[in-house]
Amino acid sequence: MTLHSKLRGILLDIEGTTTPISFVHEVLFPYARSRVKDFLTTNWHYAEVISDVALLRQEQEAESEVTLRNFAPAADQIEATSNYVQWLIDQDRKSTGLKSLQGKIWKQGYLDGTLAAPLFADVRPALERLHQNGITIAIFSSGSVLAQQLLFAHTEAGDITTLIDAYFDTTTGPKTAGESYRKIAAQLQHRPADILFVSDVAGELEAAKEAAMQTLLCIRPGIRHSPALLILRFTVLPRYSRCSALADLLTGLY
Asked: What CA–CA distances, in Å, run from 75 to 41, 72, 87?
């Protein structure tokens, strides 16, 4: 596939694209899991937390009877909600209520320095070059917008939020639905065909292609794909670049 010469925007996944998957699964998830009950106890009365809990309650009520058997009777609502949140984290469920609540829990860890997000070494230089060339840079992640903003504000390479123009989460729609990408294009005020979506997840790339976006498959070290099959469907960006592949991409476009 040849990338369109009128590229106006870049839409990036986070986990496995800009940031190692290990940070999410081995640092962020355990941090939230171990603190959710204390967080709920302290913040139960706040409107934003009440909203998250309401979403979680709706989701739990829709679970199958088999799933509900995983939860023993809880002494109170906080314990019941905490148990369900911990189960969702263990399942890596893409739950809007969960993701919103996790972002609020992570906020304290980022602010007190306990959490600092690693970026692949090529990410900041590439984003700086894209920004300098007037390309709209946006993020689409299953994590909440708050969680995304906190991550990019507290990276080991410093605060890079000035390089990012927009953030999108599952309130826009599922990452595997073409309509989500059409909504994003409309909000960015670019044609889908003028936006390049970069991800390590084939199902997300398929959805973006269905919405007429350009796509790049990001292959990072330690991530297993089926290269022969995927290369037939997507342009492949090994390791997201070796120092500056996204930036080098611009050389051929401008």
From this structure: 13, 10, 17
Per-residue model confidence as pLDDT tens digits over 173-216: 999 999 999 999 999 999 999 999 988 888 999 999 999 998 88
pLDDT digits 0-9 by tens, 4-25: 557 899 999 999 889 999 999 9
Domains and CATH numbers, the chain: 9-19+117-251 (3.40.50.1000), 24-111 (1.10.720.60)
> E strands within the chain?
9-12, 136-140, 166-168, 195-199, 214-219, 235-238
Contact 139, 168 (CB under 8 A): yes
> b vs e for 92-107, b when ≥16 Cβ sit within 10 Å of the residue's Cβ?
eeebbbbbbbbbbbbb
Question: CA 165 to CA 160: how far, in whole Å?
Answer: 11
Model confidence, pTM: 0.84
Please name which of 64, 55, 9 lies closest in space to residue 198, comparing C-alpha atoms: 9
